[in-house]
Amino acid sequence: MKHPLLASALLALAACSSAVQAATYEMFRDPNCGCCGKWADHVRAENEVAVAETITPDMALVKAEHGVPQDLWSCHTLTVGGYVIEGHVPAAEIERLLEERPEGVVGLAVPGMPIGSPGMEMGNRVQPYEVIAFRADGSRFVFARYG
What we know:
Order of helices and strands: HEHEHEEHEEE
Strand content: 25-35%
Distance between the termini: 44 Å
Radius of gyration: 16 Å
Number of strands: 7
C-alpha cells in the first residue's frame, strides 16, 4: 500500500465508529414527554444508531434502578454499552464516553432540561449547561461544557 499511515488512520476511525454503532441504545421515557423523542432523533442522526424507546410512567423507578443520583435527574434515561445516560446529553459526548471509557464512570447526565441542549432547541437561545460524569461511589466531574 502506498499510504500505510492513511490506511491505519482509516482503520482506527472505522473501529471507533463501529464500537459506538455496535452498542445497544435503549431509552426509557414518560409517555407524555415530547422532548425525549427529539433527543432520541438527535442521537440517531449524529451517531447513526438505532435507539429503542421504552415508554413507562414510572421514570423514578427506572432512574433508581440504574443508579442515577437524584440531583442529576432529567426527563429520560438511556442505557448504552454498560453506561447510563441521563437527560439531554449531546450525542458527541455519548460517543466520547464509549470510546474513552473513563475509569469508574457509570454514566453521564445533563440535569434538568436546559434550553438549547439537544431536544430542547428554541431558536438561537442557549442556556449554558454541563455534562456531568458520575461514578457509583457518588463522585462526579464535569465531562463537557456547552453554551
